[in-house]
Amino acid sequence: MAQGATALKKLADRFARMPGIGRKTAQRMAYYITSLPKEESAALAQAILDASRKVRRCSVCCDLTEEELCPICADERRDHGVICVVEQPQDLLAIERTRDYRGVYHVLHGAISPLDGIGPDQITVKPLMARIAAGGVTEVIMATDSDTEGETTALYLSRLIKPFGVKVTRLAYGIPVGSDLQYADEITLSRAMEGRREL
Amino acid sequence: MAQGATALKKLADRFARMPGIGRKTAQRMAYYITSLPKEESAALAQAILDASRKVRRCSVCCDLTEEELCPICADERRDHGVICVVEQPQDLLAIERTRDYRGVYHVLHGAISPLDGIGPDQITVKPLMARIAAGGVTEVIMATDSDTEGETTALYLSRLIKPFGVKVTRLAYGIPVGSDLQYADEITLSRAMEGRREL
Question: A49 vs B42: CB contact, 8 Å cut-off?
Fold first, then answer.
């Protein structure tokens, strides 16, 4: 395309700003758009506008939804006394796929990371604390990532929540199921040892 | 997002159809869209419409452009007697980055691949042959990929072109510059040996 297609370059630049999309993938995506029938590219543009307009945060758990209340918060069969705190909507989806969990969620939309300028105010800590202050919550499960930011966030939140007399738990660390022990890293392995249970 | 955001799911589905975009990346991209300010997502939708409307194929070399003729074909300082044949617009970009090549290009928009149902009619063989039949071409450089499809295409085209008395060449195979010899695969290594030059 050389310098001949600025519309293409502009589009590739926008794609390249997306998370996990490198320069080359962005270019390939832009080429793909030009190869689509006009109706298809128009439908994609419309889907972007729709998602941007319709999707908002649930007024309770902050998960993405098209309603005032997401289907999980609106579901009376779920246990609203147990809140599982996750960083991203994708994490919620992963837990839902287990079909084991019957409580509700709180989506932080990030984790505390002072180096990136993300403090408690940049994530949804306030609405979480409001839910806890409103009462009726018996347990908060910290399901943030097991990296530094996730750990920091879990620790920070547990300190805020405990004064309310609410039990705060953390997902177990250990060997991933079905994995080969010899490939587990030392930290995971020593955490798995610490957390061992009687059979 | 559970089942609550169909606009989000629809968008992720469309992103997942793009080349090189897996299910999870598509989901992350869709979430990203919902996190953008409304003007930003509207600008992205507009960029898609623009690229789809404005970008077309150069009437000579089939590269993507916004004009009737791409800047390279329109450039009189380039050698229009030498045509470098590439599979994709990205390949052209890669060669242009070397700043060595002064000829022109022909973009096939694919490679012959019977298994994928791609024959000479699905790529831009006809306009290439029309350029050669029109005369004035002294050399055609095959710069198709060095995989089976690229090799097949180079061989097929060279058979079509040679009867016109035009020289057909192929990019050299060999050890990538700056790479470690021990990691080169055997085929590359034996091709490099075959193509050795006197120092």
Answer: yes
